[in-house]
Amino acid sequence: MQKTAPPRPRATHLAEPMVSLGGLLRDWLPRQRWFAGKDRPVAELALLSMTELFPGCLHLLVHTGHGPVPAPGGTPPAGDCYQLLLTVRERPAPHLGRALVGRVREGPLAGRTVYDALHDPRTAQLLLERLRHPGTAGPLRFERDPARPVPAGLAPRLLDAEQSNSSLVYGDEFILKLFRRIQPGVNPDLEVPGALARQGCDRVPAPVAWLRTTRPYEATLGVLQPFLHDADDGWTLALAALGRGDDFTAEAHALGRATADVHLALASAFPAAPAGENTRTAAAMSERLTAAAHCVPALGPHVAGLRGAFAALAGCDSGPPDQRVHGDLHLGQVLRAGRDWFVIDFEGEPSRPLSERRSAHSPVRDIAGMLRSFDYAARQRRPWRPEWALRCREAYCAGYASRAGWDPRAQHGLLRAYETDRAVYEVLYEARHRPDWLPVPMAAIERLAVRGD
To answer: Per CATH, which fold does 232-450 belong to?
Structure first.
């Protein structure tokens, strides 16, 4: 006997499905790696948009936090918007046990069992088919580059790595990143690689297809790109070198050259901007420090010293012109295939507003992120090898200077301020998501607060 699909909820009555799903999602969301509100309960939950992609699979945009639910096209409320794909089954599916959201007890979906659909191979394959054939589904828009065909029948697998989003790999040929935390506007991870592809920059995989929504506002939901299956990420390579007791300076030098290549292409792809006003930049950094210290008391004793790095920035040379940058560059955001380095994940720091992530910044911001990443890697081994990180730092900056025409090491005050700002961000991130890692950025905080290096 053929099973019937769950009833299609009426999009005009968005409150009805939440009778079934609201309680489950309030419990399930805080347990997800990509949920930003782990330090507070879900006090408010509302459904912004729901579309049945195909029988048994619901696409949802839900709002958590404070503030009224926006009207279509209205101003986003305070709080967060998350993208969910849910599989609704009449009977439990044991093979989807890890993806269980819960069993519905009331409302229009009563008696059904709900799962995170990205763990369901059937759903993942149908999602790829949607991207292969551009079209619409309610407010959802599936689009692709007609010059880049995508074959059918590619087997999907969900990446298990800790991420602020979710990624599906198809046949080791393509990777689909689905953004979990949604903000209005074009996501930089679609905008920037597309612009760099038009510049002929081959250091960044170009978008092949993408998913966006028009309700409750225009926003990017996901991007499909080529998957570099034979590549290793920089973090894995760095830890392997440390484990063997090997030097990493040749790799760091090449990575510095690759970073400069991307920065040069970004400067050509997007409108030029004058160098940032250091006083305003220092004030913004100081505000972020104040907010972080309020959340992480361990920062308190170091606040005065850290403010010194920001105060010194106001008197520094403004450095290179501001431009579009990566925004969250570290060893996990770069891949090496053969002898070539590639840069991925241009979304920027997900906790920051999309408008900020799409604006121009000093390229020193990216450089500071990578230098902090070398320190993170060095501290994964015992005993700690500070000289390894220092050699990588020098090699990376030298490689960058060989392509960019200016040396980051000559911008000492600027570099120290951006490294300090990055370390403050790391402290807040680790305190919220990985408390066991908090000593790593705190060690940098202690150094940066005391000495001018």
So the answer is: Aminoglycoside 3'-phosphotransferase; Chain: A, domain 2 (3.90.1200)
